[in-house]
Amino acid sequence: MRLTFSYLFLLLLPFFYCGWPLSTKAQVLELSGDWTFQMDSTDQGLTSGWYHGLPNGQEVHLPGSLADNGIGFPVDANTDWTGKLAIPDWEEDEKFSPYLQQEWLFPFWLSPKLKYTGVGWYQKEVVITRQMRDLPLELLLERVHWEASVWVDGQFVGQSNRLGTPQIFQMPEGLSEGNHLISLRIDNRIKEVDVGHNAHSISDHTQTNWHGVIGKMQLKARAPARIRHQKIMPMVEERSVMLDLSLENLQEQSQTALLEVVVFSADKENEIARMTKEIILPKGSHPLQLQLPMGDDIRLWDEFDPYLYQLESRLSVGEQEDVQLAGFGMRKLGIAGTRFTINDRPLFLRGTLDCAIFPKTAYPPTDQQEWKRIFSTIKAHGLNHIRFHSWCPPKAAFDVADALGLYLQIECGVWAHADFPASLLGEGNPVDDWIMKESRAIVEEFGNHPSFCLFLHGNEPMGQGQEAYLASFINYWKARDNRRFYTSGAGWTAQEENDFHNIQEPRIQHWGEGLKSIINQQKPNSNYDWRHQLLENDRPVVSHEIGQWCAYPNLKEIDKYQGNLQANNYKLFQKSLAANGLSSLAEKFLMASGKLQALCYKADIEAALRTPGFAGFQLLGLSDFSGQGTAPVGVLDAFWEEKGYIRPEEFRSFCQETVPLARFDQFVFKSGSPIKVKLEVAHFGEKVLEDVRPRWVLKNQAGKVIKEGQLPTCTLPVGNVNVGEVILKHFSGQPEHLIFEFNIGTFKNQWDLWLYPDNEIPTYEDIQVVQKLEAATIKSLTRGGKVLLTLPKGSVKPQFGGDIAVGFSSIFWNTMWTEGQPPHTMGLLLDPQDPLLKAFPTEQYSNYQWWDALTHADAMALTKIHPDLQPEIRVIDDWFTNRNLGLAFEVQVGKGKLLVTSIDLVHKQSERITARQLLISMLDYMHSADFQPKVRLKAGEIEQIYEVKAAF
């Protein structure tokens, strides 16, 4: 039967949701508490009839995991992990083997204290009350990992392998009043259905392949006439809601039921509207569609005003009733060309990944408090979007996202890979059918949440039939539910069926690009964008996993791991650092590499924001990724907490709803030369900004204003806006580090600029500048002369560091997982007060004025040259190797003094203003009384470092 009713209701739901059926009269047994458990590692429980009772059970507490209860096996070299190892024989690798003698430490991801993969039985005796005995009973387990089979009093009830939704079991009819034994057989092994061992839904790389049940655990009595599901579809243009109800009558005879639909505030203090209708329900399931007018004054849901309504449907037969509560938001997702829209306003997604990393528990939280902490942190960094990489979060995450106004991308928990053939898509594997069932369960469970905006099968699909399979997946959902947008997979493919493309391009560092990427190959500038890359796309493009810029691991973080996961990977890196005599520099490595990391993220994000028609980006990531060899890619740690080198307000300056942007062709200039700046705004705020007066300021490091100005008053529509152009000119006889600040009201952004005077390179009679040591040079040194040896790029021998790929950017992802993709270093650690750099203004980290030096340099492994050598310009090495690297060092040779730099300061010198200025600074230092090398070497010990090539 199909009926249509109309009524008016208006109300905000501030924070409360109830998505599961409930009844004021029905009985609910809470099953949390003590259970009896027995491990079944030999898989004998089924044949031995353990569902009648466990022979050797022990007490555990649920909800929780086995690790919570201190059950499992310590991890060691024989542990069977769920996840790919980057280096299978890693224990024999010289980077790790010296540090495994006293303690077994694992480098690839966080280590669980205890781990168990296999079958475990959980049993609990429950009491069925008199009120429950004549009603259908339903067992609800909010999140089980992974496959659960259920028995009652030895009678098999059912089996479920849902990963992203509650597992719900209909209990047998006729259970008597009194005691009954519920048995759960949970199996977390990968069996017929293989979602991919690296999928964040199951992998030890991230949340771990834990064992147990978390969240709600309830045995509910339901009315025989009940509401199985309600689907709420906002219709903004019609100012109404379409409500699809699925009603069910379990009894043999027809029932006369009373349907009530009520709208009220979350605290139930204000009832907005009520509708009552008598319905005849024959046996079986029956759809019912209602169109509910919302009136003219509806409030729309979005990131700026996440206004929530709540709808209650109540079905009563006599004294028995069944109730469904659901929150929803009135919002209209759309596509206009290559942009998303929200309520007919352009929408730009500023996203990050959530990869299911929860160090304290090793499983996702099911409480709103923890999700509110995480999501508030994400919003504090200017982001409005979260991609759940190959997993679906629990209900509490949706509730909080609804309330805070975040746009979520949900995935079915799959990451197919050729290493796991049963995970490949479109080849007839069981995972194909599982994805469809899992997707239906996810949409039925969470589809009413306004935050649920994007949906796909999972990450980076593989399989010979993947495109055809994913086309059918997309078409299936586009035909059935228009409340969100669908695409093939995260990463690829850009196929015709997609509503939007979630692909790897564009971004400033691609997989495998190494030192040929924009940030490492092109001189620093902010005048590029991705409009040309978008020309071939006729729909929104959201760039996949941009960033992946690493900071040095925060070794102080080790003590934070007091829960189920331990940072044994960080302990291993700590031992390596100590063995190389660099422990005292750990904090400085973190801060300097972190500043460079933030600079790289700023470049990535601003390029996206500068691009007209771009739909958004997904960072990998705002927080650290602790798996896949360890990838500290976040400005936050794995706990979503700050590391100390960039505050949320600093991050927001280049990543929020309104960002002032400046296009510079370069950041380094000759003093007195014109500096042309094109000023733009990426404005994706709530409304048009009227009567805006753009302002700019040029100031020095002390904050002294050198120049300032205003542009004409303008109106900023939502989108990308050009606001004008400024030409600056400033002359100084000294090198200067300046800051250009661009303000749009309270929104501010800034860029570093360097101005160097066009001075002649000084000629000091007592200093020779050479690119190799020849006999005359060595003779001069032995007699007390001074020599600057500036080696051509590529001349340092591999055994002395020449095989270490130096770039401007930090490491991409991590060198172990990428099989050594360059760069292999993480920028520089510098002393701004070092007299060597007196004429070359610098911070403690490498900023853009160091790009030229770093792209014309080799690393030098100083310990290989002499154990006492310390660099004047230190390179931060990969945390897997922790070598003592430098670009410059000084020594005594004979009676003379030698400064060696592996930066080529000679090649095309007239075209390299920063090389000239750095050379001037070095020469001034060598000419001063500050140049007093401490370590003494022989000329031959220097000559062995490099090889003379024809290009010398």
From TrEMBL:
GO molecular function, one term: hydrolase activity, hydrolyzing O-glycosyl compounds
InterPro entries listed in its UniProt record: Beta-gal/glucu_dom_sf (IPR036156), Galactose-bd-like_sf (IPR008979), GH (IPR017853), GH2_Domain-Containing (IPR051913), Glyco_hydro_2_cat (IPR006103), Ig-like_fold (IPR013783), Ig-like_GH2 (IPR006102)
UniProt keyword terms in alphabetical order: Glycosidase, Hydrolase
A Pfam cross-reference name: Glyco_hydro_2_C
Ranges for domain Glycoside hydrolase family 2 catalytic: 337-496
Chain ranges of the Glycoside hydrolase family 2 immunoglobulin-like beta-sandwich domain: 226-331
GO BP annotations, alphabetical order: carbohydrate metabolic process
Top-level taxon: Bacteria
Recorded family membership: Belongs to the glycosyl hydrolase 2 family.
Entries under PANTHER family matching the protein: BETA-GALACTOSIDASE, BETA-MANNOSIDASE
Name used for this protein in its record: Beta-galactosidase
